[in-house]
Specification:
Largest sheet: none
Shape: globular
Number of helices: 12
Strand content: under 5%
Distance between the termini: 49 Å
Structural class: mainly alpha
Helix content: over 70%
Length: 296
């Protein structure tokens, strides 16, 4: 399609992919239901079962009204801002890999087209580890250790690339596996972990939007640190990406410690004063409810 409408072929790729997203998003309005109560594909028994499970899941951690007090609680919650930093740090890796992977593969002597094709196995392996990690994290009901495993795995890859003049090209190819697998382990967990610790659908919606919307600025960083004149060593790119990855690791650690401290405080009755709040406010505290316990 190169030349059609005066656009290059690569521009048409973005246009077609973007249009597909727009069309699907518009059509989704017709078939995505707002609430379980209005889901037409559920019968009465299934609907009641789902509602009962949702009630057991959230317990008292409800936020069904977005009033002034609820809004204040949401935007003053430190967990949301730490969650943004977690995502910002690791999403840079997700965006960065598209800049240096083709370069490293071409150094193996492959053509540009073959290099693109042979990048596919890397993502297949990353997908496998992502799914395995998701299953294990859910089975163990733990998140923190898995985020740090991903950070450590990706760190090995970045360290190899930062010293690439002293290692063979095959080792650089292996480094790409480490970086992509590590990033794909950590990045999804940062999203789920924050969401798990938000009480009430309003708070979950706002926190998810803030985390993804602001955190994706990591992509802006990624697009400006891989300087063409530094190819293939990309010292600035790899160094900044490694630093941001450990910013994610530090934020995950702060999140983990903060959640444990808050749970301990609640176990010792440190938040029981909230039971004295008006009933209407007590029932709309979300995860600030003293009976809520955070997962880590």
């Amino acid at each position: 399609m190169a030349g059609i409408g005066g656009y290059s072929g690569w521009r048409w790729i973005f246009i077609i992919e973007g249009l597909g997203t727009v069309v699907v998003a518009a059509a989704s309005k017709l078939f995505i239901v707002d609430w379980p109560e209005t889901a037409k594909f559920l019968n009465d028994d299934e609907r009641q079962l789902l509602l009962r499970r949702l009630r057991n899941d959230v317990a008292e951690a409800k936020m069904d009204r977005l009033d002034k007090k609820a809004t204040t609680r949401i935007f003053r919650d430190w967990k949301i801002y730490v969650g943004i930093v977690m995502y910002f740090g690791v999403v840079n890796t997700g965006y960065s890999i598209v800049f240096f992977t083709p370069t490293i593969l071409k150094e193996l002597g492959w053509t540009s087209i073959r290099a693109q094709v042979l990048s596919i196995p890397i993502y297949i392996v990353a997908c496998f580890f992502t799914l395995i990690t998701a299953l294990m994290a859910d089975r163990l009901r733990h998140r923190y250790a898995f985020t740090m495993v991903g950070v450590l795995v990706a760190t090995i890859g970045y360290l190899i690339l930062l010293t690439q003049k002293h290692v063979p090209v095959g080792a650089r190819y292996l480094a790409v596996y480490f970086i992509i697998v590590g990033g794909y382990i950590t990045q999804p967990i940062t999203l789920v972990w924050l969401n798990n610790n938000m009480g009430g659908h309003y708070k979950r919606s706002i926190s998810s939007a803030m985390q993804v919307g602001i955190g994706n600025c990591g992509g802006i960083v990624a697009s400006n640190i891989y300087i063409t004149s530094q190819a293939p060593t990309y010292y600035v790119g790899f160094g900044v990406s490694l630093g941001l990855l450990w910013l994610c690791g530090l934020a995950c650690t702060a999140f983990f410690v903060g959640l444990r401290m808050e749970n301990k405080k609640r176990d010792n009755g440190g938040r029981d004063d909230r039971y004295n709040l008006p009933e209407e406010e007590l029932e709309n505290l979300g995860d600030d409810h003293p009976r809520f316990r955070y997962g880590y």
